[in-house]
Amino acid sequence: MPEYATFARNVFIPVTNICRNNCHYCTFRREPSHPDAQLMGEKEIGDILSHGKKAGCTEALFVFGEYAEEVPEYMEWLESRGYSSTVDYVYKLCEMAIGKGLLPHTNAGILTYEEMEVLKPVNASMGLMLETTARLPAHELSPGKEPKIRLRMIEDAGKLHIPFTTGILVGIGETRENRIYSLETIAEIQLKYGHIQEVIIQNFMPKPGTRMESIKPPSKEEMLDTVQLARSILPADVEVQVAPNLIDPYLLIKAGAKDLGGISPTTIDWINPEAEWPDVEKLKTMARDIPLKERLPIYPQYIRSGWYSKQLDGLINSLANSEGYRK
Ligand SMILES: O=c1nc2n(C[C@H](O)[C@H](O)[C@H](O)CO)c3cc(O)ccc3cc-2c(=O)[nH]1
Ligand SMILES: C[C@H]1O[C@@H](n2cnc3c(N)ncnc32)[C@H](O)[C@@H]1O
Ligand code: SF4
Questions:
Q1: For binding [4Fe-4S] cluster, which residues are annotated in this chain's numbering (predicted)?
Q2: Cβ within 8 Å of residue 193, ≥6 positions away
């Protein structure tokens, strides 16, 4: 039985839903011609950040479709907003978030070493799901889900000393052996670089209208087994995260999950829009006898080792020293 479990309070900002990939489980992505296709503007994002700050959030989670720049319509939208690359725009949005007192965590899909180098000074942590080391039909239309490319980016983040979130998506056609190998591969990277703060064990949620709409989600037993595997395979300095809006976390916490990820008082989960966030009170009820502690999007060990830039120094220190956060 763990001493406690952690969670973060965030605002989820789906900056663009244009994506070069086409994962068979995803409803986040839009064709450029779709009425909901978007590149969010600075004013709209500024308002979400301010609202989130007032509601006690500490994290701005910026999520993107991958390399939307490969889609011509997107480049037009970006240029009409005055930017020539996604990274320039992300940089600006991260500066806005910091100015409003929120710590950025960017998950833009695949980025190059150079792109992450640019974004590192304005991000408290960054993320990319490995998904799986297996090559699956679910990813046949997604060049960016090639395991080698994902592993390259996760390693590059390590070389750059960026506190990092990765994870596996469970139930997209991979075997138990594949899960073990995915986790072993993440463990090896962690032993080499030490930058992985958490590994998400995310259960696949079938979505109506997708190619995988009638694939069964993983059972509770499979999720329990996968969390146990993760806890036994990953080094002790990596926390295992599960999403409390996708699965009842109680038994998973008892099996080794120690983090419940970001929950948002003001925004929805744009990747799983049907799954409502519990609020903190509800989360405490779900965790029953396990106490909860709020954390920041950068884990304490990376604050202590100074894995952040001057631009984040003031905000990280003032948040980390204020009452109530996991030290
Ligand atoms: O609200 C969500 N947050 C997601 N997060 C964010 C997470 O909840 C927290 O923001 C992190 O724990 C950082 O504090 C992700 C972060 C990543 O880097 C990679 C994948 C995810 C997936 C989700 C998700 O599906 N929904
Ligand atoms: C941000 C992360 O969200 C996850 N993701 C995308 N679609 C789904 C789905 N249907 N169910 C659960 N997780 C999903 C992927 O793992 C992606 O990397
Ligand atoms: S999961 Fe990410 S990469 Fe895959 S289609 Fe959706 S937005 Fe694109």
A1: 19, 23, 26
A2: 155, 157, 158, 159
Residue 26 labelled as part of a binding site: yes
Q: Does ligand 2 have an atom closer than 6 angstroms to the CB of 207?
A: yes
Q: Whose CA is nearest to atom 3 of ligand 2?
A: 271
For ligand 1, whether the C-beta of 262 sits within 6 Å is yes
Token pair for 80: 């009409």
Would residue 285 count as lying in a domain?
A: yes
Number of domains in the chain: 1
**Residue 327 forms part of a structural domain:** no
Q: Which of 105, 106, 169 most suits a substitution to test ligand 2, by most atoms within 8 Å of the C-beta? A: 169
Domain region containing 134: 5-320
ipTM of the complex: 0.96
Amino acid at 284: K
C-alpha–C-alpha distance, residues 61 and 45, integer Å: 11
Q: Using CA atoms, how far apart are residues 82 and 253, in angstroms rounded to an integer?
A: 46
Instruction: Tell me the pLDDT tens digit for each residue of 48-97.
Output: 999 999 999 999 999 999 999 999 999 999 999 999 999 999 999 999 99
